[in-house]
Amino acid sequence: MLIAVLLFDRFTALDAVGPYDVLSHLPGAEVVFVAERPGPVTNEVGSLRLVADAALADVSTADVVVVPGGPGQNAHMVDGPVQRWLRAVDPHTTWTTSVCSGSLLLAAAGLLTGRSATSHWLVRDQLADHGALPVGDRVVFDGKYVTAAGVSAGLDMAFALAGRIAGDAVAQAIQLAHEYDPRPPYRSGNPDTAPRAIADAVLARRSAIVS
Amino acid sequence: MLIAVLLFDRFTALDAVGPYDVLSHLPGAEVVFVAERPGPVTNEVGSLRLVADAALADVSTADVVVVPGGPGQNAHMVDGPVQRWLRAVDPHTTWTTSVCSGSLLLAAAGLLTGRSATSHWLVRDQLADHGALPVGDRVVFDGKYVTAAGVSAGLDMAFALAGRIAGDAVAQAIQLAHEYDPRPPYRSGNPDTAPRAIADAVLARRSAIVS
Questions:
Q1: ipTM score here?
Q2: Cross-sheet strand order for the sheet of B64-67
Q3: Which of A16, A112, B147, B192 is the most exposed place for a label (fewest CB within 10 A)?
Q4: Surface of B (18-77) touching A: CB under 8 A
Q5: Pairwise CB contact (< 8 Å): B179 & A18
Q6: What pLDDT score was predicted for residue A211?
Q7: Between 3.90.1490.10, 3.10.20.740, 1.20.1250.20, 3.40.50.880, what CATH number should domain B2-185 receive?
Q8: Per-block mean pLDDT, blocks of 10 residues, chain A (211 long)
Q9: Cβ–Cβ contact B197 with A under 8 A
């Protein structure tokens, strides 16, 4: 089972590494990090570099594709190498997935037309501009397309996907190995529970977060 | 504020990237990934490489140190460059932190003697072998030493630490930007809630997970 994780300049690290760290533990999983060019790819903060093993042209098929989000996603919303790669590899996948604003890339590539999908809460409505049907859930399955809400939602998506791929027991074992029993110290994880002033402040600097 | 994230061969990626992705968004934060040698460092699965910016010798001071865990931690439990670096940098830190079995490294370096600390549930008891006092909490603060339980607990630690460093409002804003409103699809995140057979299976392959 080949899992291809897309990287691009100014991606959000946790969008990619959260699902990676779960799915890479599935039996038989092999992972390739793929980008326009092989080599280090820098995240949106500028201080983390993850190495891409392969160029887009080197990965023509994959069983699972994971598309992260981040401010750098915006540069690939027009037709170009990333969108062409997504369209070329998608017919071969068993699961095509995204985290955060990565779903906008899938939608812009035409892969979510008429499908339910989610994204980071700051940009979820933009899915409709690209033919998808925005849903407010944290993880959305529509056929083989699986989309997660912002950043950390990639973990919940990955455990749900692990269960679909390898069964509940395998997913539960990975969860226990990762001690994924989250206890956020604040209740500020979504705009409905966050203090109003916090939500307004995050909204005001949206462009630094997702696009 | 300089945040130094330690990397070593066969670290667990999420142990490092979870806290990184939270703490790197603190106002004024600069992050350096540090390892015995600069360059790509491979995780315990073997398919992810994160780039270390600096050698241990290049980072003599930091405001925050983050020590991940993973099977590779075991190679540094004896006196050597990593332990010497931890002892040298610690007097300069405001916060010295760890995720997962990274607390065993701090303890082996003599930094947790007589202090309460946690670790991955599979190895938490081993803290006592190195003079620390094992506590079953997900995140443990003892003075400037902050330790987290297994892998994903680094996220909870990082948000709690972000609050201590920059105040509740900043931590809450980062939480909302990361949409950290976790909804695990299974209740298998700790050995008390996981099915017994799952816990036994994870216990049986402990050495592949943490040491």
A1: 0.95
A2: B54-55, B30-35, B2-6, B64-67, B95-98, B145-148, B139-142
A3: B192
A4: 18, 20-21, 24-25, 30-33, 40, 45, 47-51, 53
A5: no
A6: 67
A7: 3.40.50.880
A8: 98 98 97 98 97 97 98 95 98 98 97 98 96 97 98 97 97 96 96 93 84 67
A9: yes
